Amino acid sequence: MESNTDLNKDMKRFAPGTVDVQEDGSMVLTLTRTYAAAPADVWAMLTQPEKTELWWAKVRGKAQTGSPFDLKWLNVKDEHGHADETEWWNGRVIQGQAPDVLEISNAMHGTIRVELSADGTGTKMVFANIISVPKDVALMSLSGWHVHLDHLAEALDGKKVDWAHWWDDFYPCWEQVHAAYQSADR
């Protein structure tokens, strides 16, 4: 695996996501990506704990409908500015249909739904996160998902994020993406 210095930091290779406000006030954050990997390979990156840590979070559970599916974020800092992990955020698989649909509920991130479909020799992903938060928080979350899904493209190419250095390496990328989303929302 390659280091963070070999990872993309441009964050412009994928189209921006969208925020849609629902009648009940919840927000649907949607990002669409196409990856140069088979749906089964993308599914593995979403569901296998040894692979999710390369680009997203620690996962505890199985991607089967009704099973627990807990997440532990790896790109956080403690009160002294050192790399840290969050507590486990409990979740459950609402729908697990390999390799097409993974929908989970999560204590911190509401509902996350990922739909995968073959697209030529690759995979089209439609990622949706349904959350009930103020618009400014939704834009922060959308920015985070944008960066994580970029990390997924890198993981599919055999690279991984060095979480201990994420803030130095990728927080500036997150800030760039977040500023673009804020600007587009005005």
Automatic annotation (TrEMBL):
Stored Gene3D superfamilies: 3.30.530.20
Coiled coil: none
Residue span(s) of domain Activator of Hsp90 ATPase homologue 1/2-like C-terminal: 37-156
InterPro entries named in the record: ASHA1/2-like_C, START-like_dom_sf
Lineage top rank: taxon: Bacteria
Protein name: SRPBCC domain-containing protein
Family: Belongs to the AHA1 family.
Name of one Pfam family that matches: AHSA1
